[in-house]
Task: structure prediction
Amino acid sequence: MKIRLLIITLLSSLLLDSCSSGKAALKHGDYYDAVSQAVNRLRQKPDHKKSKEVLKTSYQLAIDYLESDAQNQIASNANYKWKNAVQNYDRINYLYEQIRTSPGALKVIPKPINKYKELTEVKAKAAEESYELGIQSMLKNTREDAKRAYFAFADANTLSPGYRESIEMMEQSKFNATIKVVVERPLRNYNDWNFEPVIFGVRPSLFVKFYSPQEAQDANLEHIDHFVRLVVNGYSEARPVITKRTEEYKDSVKVGEKTVNNVKVPTYEKVKASMTTYEKSITSRGSITLFIKDANSNAELRNSEIIGEERWADRWATCTGDQRAIPTNTRKLCGTKEPYMARDFLIVETKKDLDSKLANALNGFYSNY
Result:
């Protein structure tokens, strides 16, 4: 068994060493990962033989592959050819910086290659490319295309901060893509529960925004997509329910020592006790209904009841007999008095449960918009 365990340990160690050196990645033709792993290993162990071999073999292969792929992307007719080229040059520069900060790797590759000049040129082209693709998407005048436009303008701004009107176009395309939801004022309810902070606090999607009626009016919205309305159906608490259970305990407890054949041995006494445990519990139930309506067709998109249920419970006990017979953890209940629930405890907890479930319902409904 020990030999088998030793073999498994050695094999695991060899496998780990192979992976950390990048040898496995090199074997599968993943030259970039092979270089990254080898450099990281050499940062920890500058004289690691396998990592040196992997780095020496894979570095130029990685550079050639990334450079070739960048040129192929540029020569293609792909929509994001310049952005893809940026990614390749970013990778070459990342390897350059990693090697420069690893003394062990720098001994193997004393003159790592960088493409900062080329990167500056292709970033400018990539920003222009993304911006133009954003404009083309905006012209299609659909919500899904407005979403694509937003990300295209965001790319342009990332590649070249402040590129042309990329920030303004991001805001416009986001507005065009956003589902505008007006939250109707709720009717006053008995518990004066307010769920508006929950509704306005959810962030189900980048392209969903909730407005109060006043905010919608102030924003002069030309188009509203949905109306959300919440109805508080009610809240109730059940009467307290008290249950009891009586248990008998017997035990032998040490009471002293006596000497037998010049040896001290403990003496025990048999004891018994009775314990009656009471439990008081109160349950509560709160209910709200979530309505979501299409503002154009008046179609009901959602009509669902959300229920919050909570329970409060506490115990006390009376004990008779010798309490030493009762287990220590249980004994602490002896002599405790009947507990009473704090005022409004269940109302507060039920509202919290409804808050959480309402947020989940809204996130679930709007997450795909």
